[in-house]
Amino acid sequence: MTGDPLSEAEDILKYRFSDHNLLGKALTHSSVTNSNSPGNDYERLEFLGDAVLELVTREYLLAEFPDEPEGDLTRRKIRIVQKGNLSEHGRRLGLDNLVHVGKSFVSSSGALESVAADVVESLIGAIYIDSGLQSAREFITREILKQSDGSGPLSDPRSELQEYCQAKGLKLPEYSLTDRSGPDHDPVFTITVIIEGQYAGRGTGTTRGAAREKAAEKALKKLERMV
Fold first, then answer.
1. DSSP structure string for 155-174
2. How far apart, in whole angstroms, are the C-alpha atoms of residue 124 and residue 50?
3. pTM higher than 0.85 for the full model?
4. Among 8-12, 42-46, 89-93, 169-173, whose mean pLDDT is lowest?
5. Which is it for strands 188-195 and 198-205: parallel, antiparallel or unpaired?
6. Which positions are annotated as active-site residues?
7. Residues 123/13, Cβ–Cβ less than 8 Å
8. Distance in angstroms (rounded) separating the CA atoms of residues 109 and 93
9. At what angle do helices 157-168 and 208-226 cross, to 10 degrees?
10. What is the average per-residue pLDDT within 50-57?
Protein backbone atom coordinates (compact mmCIF):
# COMPACT_ATOMS: atom_id res chain seq x y z
CA MET A 1 0.00 0.00 0.00
CA THR A 2 1.22 3.49 -0.83
CA GLY A 3 -0.63 5.66 1.68
CA ASP A 4 -2.50 7.33 -1.19
CA PRO A 5 -6.18 6.25 -0.99
CA LEU A 6 -6.64 6.48 -4.77
CA SER A 7 -3.64 4.30 -5.52
CA GLU A 8 -4.58 1.88 -2.76
CA ALA A 9 -8.09 1.60 -4.17
CA GLU A 10 -6.71 0.85 -7.64
CA ASP A 11 -4.47 -1.86 -6.20
CA ILE A 12 -7.40 -3.45 -4.40
CA LEU A 13 -9.70 -3.19 -7.42
CA LYS A 14 -6.97 -4.43 -9.81
CA TYR A 15 -8.12 -1.63 -12.08
CA ARG A 16 -6.46 1.63 -13.18
CA PHE A 17 -8.73 4.63 -13.67
CA SER A 18 -8.42 6.99 -16.61
CA ASP A 19 -10.36 9.61 -14.59
CA HIS A 20 -8.99 9.91 -11.06
CA ASN A 21 -11.53 12.62 -10.20
CA LEU A 22 -14.19 9.97 -10.72
CA LEU A 23 -12.39 7.62 -8.36
CA GLY A 24 -12.10 10.43 -5.81
CA LYS A 25 -15.87 10.95 -5.87
CA ALA A 26 -16.44 7.22 -5.42
CA LEU A 27 -14.45 7.40 -2.17
CA THR A 28 -16.08 10.56 -0.78
CA HIS A 29 -18.92 10.33 1.75
CA SER A 30 -21.74 12.88 1.66
CA SER A 31 -20.65 14.20 5.08
CA VAL A 32 -17.70 15.84 3.29
CA THR A 33 -19.87 17.77 0.84
CA ASN A 34 -23.07 19.76 1.28
CA SER A 35 -26.41 20.35 -0.43
CA ASN A 36 -24.88 23.10 -2.57
CA SER A 37 -22.46 20.67 -4.26
CA PRO A 38 -24.48 17.63 -5.37
CA GLY A 39 -22.53 15.03 -7.27
CA ASN A 40 -19.25 15.58 -5.45
CA ASP A 41 -19.72 12.54 -3.23
CA TYR A 42 -20.39 8.88 -3.96
CA GLU A 43 -24.20 8.83 -3.75
CA ARG A 44 -24.91 9.19 -7.49
CA LEU A 45 -22.23 6.61 -8.33
CA GLU A 46 -23.70 4.29 -5.72
CA PHE A 47 -27.10 4.65 -7.41
CA LEU A 48 -25.59 3.57 -10.74
CA GLY A 49 -23.42 0.85 -9.23
CA ASP A 50 -26.46 -0.75 -7.61
CA ALA A 51 -28.06 -1.18 -11.06
CA VAL A 52 -24.87 -2.53 -12.65
CA LEU A 53 -24.45 -5.03 -9.79
CA GLU A 54 -28.05 -6.19 -10.23
CA LEU A 55 -27.57 -6.77 -13.97
CA VAL A 56 -24.28 -8.64 -13.66
CA THR A 57 -25.58 -10.76 -10.79
CA ARG A 58 -28.67 -11.77 -12.77
CA GLU A 59 -26.50 -12.69 -15.78
CA TYR A 60 -24.21 -14.75 -13.58
CA LEU A 61 -26.98 -16.64 -11.82
CA LEU A 62 -28.78 -17.46 -15.07
CA ALA A 63 -25.56 -19.01 -16.39
CA GLU A 64 -24.65 -20.78 -13.14
CA PHE A 65 -28.09 -22.24 -12.44
CA PRO A 66 -29.73 -22.90 -15.84
CA ASP A 67 -32.37 -25.25 -14.44
CA GLU A 68 -33.49 -23.25 -11.41
CA PRO A 69 -36.91 -21.55 -11.31
CA GLU A 70 -37.23 -17.79 -11.08
CA GLY A 71 -38.11 -17.86 -7.39
CA ASP A 72 -34.86 -19.59 -6.41
CA LEU A 73 -32.83 -17.27 -8.63
CA THR A 74 -34.49 -14.29 -6.96
CA ARG A 75 -33.57 -15.55 -3.52
CA ARG A 76 -29.97 -16.13 -4.56
CA LYS A 77 -29.81 -12.66 -6.07
CA ILE A 78 -31.19 -11.03 -2.92
CA ARG A 79 -28.64 -12.85 -0.81
CA ILE A 80 -25.78 -11.55 -2.97
CA VAL A 81 -26.79 -7.90 -3.40
CA GLN A 82 -28.10 -7.24 0.11
CA LYS A 83 -26.24 -4.62 2.11
CA GLY A 84 -24.95 -7.07 4.69
CA ASN A 85 -23.16 -9.13 2.06
CA LEU A 86 -21.74 -6.09 0.27
CA SER A 87 -20.55 -4.69 3.59
CA GLU A 88 -18.64 -7.90 4.31
CA HIS A 89 -16.85 -7.64 0.97
CA GLY A 90 -16.13 -3.95 1.43
CA ARG A 91 -14.50 -4.65 4.78
CA ARG A 92 -12.71 -7.76 3.50
CA LEU A 93 -11.10 -5.72 0.75
CA GLY A 94 -10.38 -2.76 3.05
CA LEU A 95 -12.33 -0.34 0.86
CA ASP A 96 -14.17 1.12 3.85
CA ASN A 97 -10.86 2.38 5.26
CA LEU A 98 -10.28 4.46 2.13
CA VAL A 99 -13.53 6.46 2.29
CA HIS A 100 -13.14 10.16 3.06
CA VAL A 101 -15.72 11.20 5.67
CA GLY A 102 -16.47 14.63 7.14
CA LYS A 103 -16.60 15.88 10.70
CA SER A 104 -20.38 15.43 10.81
CA PHE A 105 -20.09 11.68 10.20
CA VAL A 106 -21.30 9.67 13.20
CA SER A 107 -19.17 6.56 13.51
CA SER A 108 -21.76 4.04 14.70
CA SER A 109 -21.63 0.35 13.83
CA GLY A 110 -24.63 0.75 11.52
CA ALA A 111 -23.11 3.74 9.75
CA LEU A 112 -19.80 1.96 9.26
CA GLU A 113 -21.56 -1.10 7.84
CA SER A 114 -23.51 1.13 5.46
CA VAL A 115 -20.35 2.90 4.26
CA ALA A 116 -18.61 -0.42 3.61
CA ALA A 117 -21.53 -1.54 1.41
CA ASP A 118 -22.06 1.84 -0.26
CA VAL A 119 -18.45 2.21 -1.37
CA VAL A 120 -18.56 -1.17 -3.11
CA GLU A 121 -21.51 0.04 -5.20
CA SER A 122 -20.03 3.49 -5.83
CA LEU A 123 -16.79 1.97 -7.11
CA ILE A 124 -18.73 -0.37 -9.39
CA GLY A 125 -20.49 2.70 -10.79
CA ALA A 126 -17.20 4.52 -11.20
CA ILE A 127 -15.58 1.61 -13.05
CA TYR A 128 -18.62 1.38 -15.31
CA ILE A 129 -18.43 5.07 -16.26
CA ASP A 130 -14.65 4.97 -16.64
CA SER A 131 -14.44 2.05 -19.07
CA GLY A 132 -17.74 0.23 -19.46
CA LEU A 133 -19.64 -2.86 -18.43
CA GLN A 134 -16.96 -5.49 -19.03
CA SER A 135 -14.50 -3.93 -16.57
CA ALA A 136 -17.26 -3.62 -13.97
CA ARG A 137 -18.31 -7.22 -14.64
CA GLU A 138 -14.76 -8.47 -14.06
CA PHE A 139 -14.54 -6.80 -10.65
CA ILE A 140 -18.04 -7.89 -9.60
CA THR A 141 -17.46 -11.48 -10.67
CA ARG A 142 -14.04 -11.78 -9.03
CA GLU A 143 -14.67 -9.97 -5.74
CA ILE A 144 -18.39 -10.38 -5.11
CA LEU A 145 -19.97 -13.23 -7.05
CA LYS A 146 -17.10 -15.68 -6.67
CA GLN A 147 -16.70 -14.71 -3.00
CA SER A 148 -20.39 -14.86 -2.04
CA ASP A 149 -22.43 -17.78 -0.83
CA GLY A 150 -24.94 -17.50 -3.65
CA SER A 151 -24.21 -21.05 -4.79
CA GLY A 152 -24.82 -22.63 -1.39
CA PRO A 153 -28.02 -24.26 -0.20
CA LEU A 154 -30.94 -21.88 0.02
CA SER A 155 -32.76 -21.29 3.25
CA ASP A 156 -36.53 -21.24 3.32
CA PRO A 157 -38.45 -18.26 1.86
CA ARG A 158 -39.50 -17.03 5.31
CA SER A 159 -35.87 -16.76 6.42
CA GLU A 160 -34.90 -15.11 3.14
CA LEU A 161 -37.73 -12.58 3.49
CA GLN A 162 -36.72 -11.78 7.07
CA GLU A 163 -33.08 -11.30 6.01
CA TYR A 164 -34.20 -9.04 3.17
CA CYS A 165 -36.28 -6.86 5.49
CA GLN A 166 -33.45 -6.61 8.01
CA ALA A 167 -30.99 -5.63 5.27
CA LYS A 168 -33.35 -2.90 4.01
CA GLY A 169 -34.16 -1.59 7.49
CA LEU A 170 -37.81 -2.66 7.25
CA LYS A 171 -40.03 -4.01 9.99
CA LEU A 172 -40.11 -7.79 10.17
CA PRO A 173 -42.91 -9.50 8.18
CA GLU A 174 -46.19 -10.18 9.95
CA TYR A 175 -48.21 -13.27 9.01
CA SER A 176 -51.91 -13.73 9.62
CA LEU A 177 -54.41 -16.50 8.85
CA THR A 178 -57.04 -14.99 6.55
CA ASP A 179 -58.96 -18.09 5.50
CA ARG A 180 -59.44 -21.78 6.31
CA SER A 181 -61.47 -24.00 4.03
CA GLY A 182 -62.04 -27.66 3.29
CA PRO A 183 -62.87 -30.57 5.60
CA ASP A 184 -61.00 -31.18 8.85
CA HIS A 185 -59.08 -34.10 7.36
CA ASP A 186 -57.95 -32.06 4.33
CA PRO A 187 -57.88 -28.36 5.22
CA VAL A 188 -56.59 -25.50 3.09
CA PHE A 189 -55.09 -22.50 4.86
CA THR A 190 -54.59 -19.01 3.43
CA ILE A 191 -51.91 -16.81 5.02
CA THR A 192 -51.28 -13.13 4.27
CA VAL A 193 -47.96 -11.42 4.95
CA ILE A 194 -47.78 -7.72 5.81
CA ILE A 195 -44.62 -5.59 5.66
CA GLU A 196 -44.57 -2.02 6.98
CA GLY A 197 -48.35 -2.14 7.26
CA GLN A 198 -48.73 -2.98 3.57
CA TYR A 199 -49.96 -6.15 1.89
CA ALA A 200 -46.94 -8.04 0.52
CA GLY A 201 -48.16 -11.49 -0.44
CA ARG A 202 -50.63 -14.33 0.11
CA GLY A 203 -50.14 -18.08 0.07
CA THR A 204 -52.21 -21.22 0.46
CA GLY A 205 -51.27 -24.68 1.70
CA THR A 206 -52.49 -27.76 3.49
CA THR A 207 -50.68 -26.59 6.64
CA ARG A 208 -50.18 -23.15 8.13
CA GLY A 209 -46.43 -23.52 7.67
CA ALA A 210 -46.72 -24.33 3.98
CA ALA A 211 -49.05 -21.37 3.47
CA ARG A 212 -46.58 -19.04 5.22
CA GLU A 213 -43.79 -20.29 2.94
CA LYS A 214 -45.89 -19.53 -0.15
CA ALA A 215 -46.81 -16.10 1.17
CA ALA A 216 -43.16 -15.28 1.86
CA GLU A 217 -42.18 -16.44 -1.63
CA LYS A 218 -44.84 -14.19 -3.18
CA ALA A 219 -43.61 -11.28 -1.06
CA LEU A 220 -40.02 -11.81 -2.18
CA LYS A 221 -41.09 -11.72 -5.82
CA LYS A 222 -43.09 -8.56 -5.24
CA LEU A 223 -40.19 -6.84 -3.50
CA GLU A 224 -37.86 -7.95 -6.28
CA ARG A 225 -40.00 -6.18 -8.87
CA MET A 226 -39.89 -2.97 -6.81
CA VAL A 227 -36.07 -2.66 -6.72
1. --HHHHHHHHHHHHTPPPPE
2. 8
3. no
4. 169-173
5. antiparallel
6. 50, 121
7. yes
8. 18
9. 40
10. 96
Q: Nearest 10 degrees: CA dihedral of 220, 198, 205, 160?
A: 30
State whether residue 202 is helix, strand or coil. strand
In angstroms, the CA 52 to CA 178 distance is 39
Instruction: List domains and CATH numbers for the chain.
Output: 5-145 (1.10.1520.10), 157-226 (3.30.160.20)
Work out the number of other CB atoms within 10 angstroms of the CB of residue 108: 9
Burial of 131 (0-12, 13-18, 19+ CB in 10 A): middle
Which one-letter DSSP state was computed for residue 189? E
Residue 169 has what pLDDT? 79
> Sign of the CA dihedral 90, 96, 101, 103?
positive
CB 212 within 8 A of CB 158: yes
Per-residue pLDDT tens over the stretch 144-182: 999 886 545 556 788 888 878 877 778 899 999 999 998
Question: How far apart, in whole angstroms, are the C-alpha atoms of residue 157 and residue 132?
Answer: 35
